[in-house]
Amino acid sequence: MYTRIVIINFVFLTIILISCNIESGSEVFNYESDTPAWLKQKIDSISNFTGHYYDWTRVYRYNWNESFVYHFSVPLSSCKHCELYDHDGNKITAFNDSLKARKGEVLIWENKK
C-alpha cells in the first residue's frame, strides 16, 4: 500500500514538473546573435553616456504584428522619452497602440547605473 502511494505521488509530481517546463514560455535569447546591429549600436551609445539620464534604462523586445519591436524604457523621464522601434530600426509613432498588443516580452539589456 505504501509503495503504491509513493509511486502515485512520484507520477503526479513528474507530470506537474514536465507541464511546468513546457508551459514556462521562457524564450532562449542570445544578445550577440538575436540583436540587430543598429540596436547594439544604440545600446552602446547609451552605455557610454556619462550623464544620469539613461540610468536604469531597459530595452525590451516584443512580438507585435508578427514582427519584433524594441521598447526603450527610460524611467527617469516617466517614459516621456521612451521610444519604440521596429526590427529595422525605424521609430514607431503609434506608441500606445503598439504596446497594448505586445506579446512575448524579452529583456534585452538594462543599464544598472
Q: How would you describe the overall organization of this protein?
A:
Helices cover 37% and strands 23% of the residues. It has 113 residues and is an alpha+beta fold. It has one domain (29-110). Strands 3-2-1-4 form a four-stranded antiparallel sheet. The protein is elongated, with a radius of gyration of 20 Å.
Question: Can I get a quick summary?
Answer:
This protein is 37% helix and 23% strand. With 113 residues, the chain is an alpha+beta fold. Strand 1 (58-64) and strand 2 form a beta hairpin.
Major sheet summary line: 4 strands, antiparallel
Order of helices and strands: HHHEEEHE
- Kindly report the spatial arrangement of strands forming the biggest sheet: 3-2-1-4
- Measured distance between first and last alpha carbons: 59 Å
Mean pLDDT over the full residue set: 78
* Structure summary, number of beta strands: 4
Q: Give the number of helices.
A: 4
In helices, the fraction of residues equals 25-40%
| Low-confidence parts | 20-25
Structural domains: how many: 1
Tell me what portion of residues adopts beta-strand conformation.
15-25%
Gross geometry: elongated
Q: What Rg, in angstroms, do the CA atoms define?
A: 20 Å
Output the structural class.
alpha+beta
What attributes characterize this protein structure?
4-stranded antiparallel beta sheet, 4 strands, alpha+beta, elongated, 4 helices, 113 residues
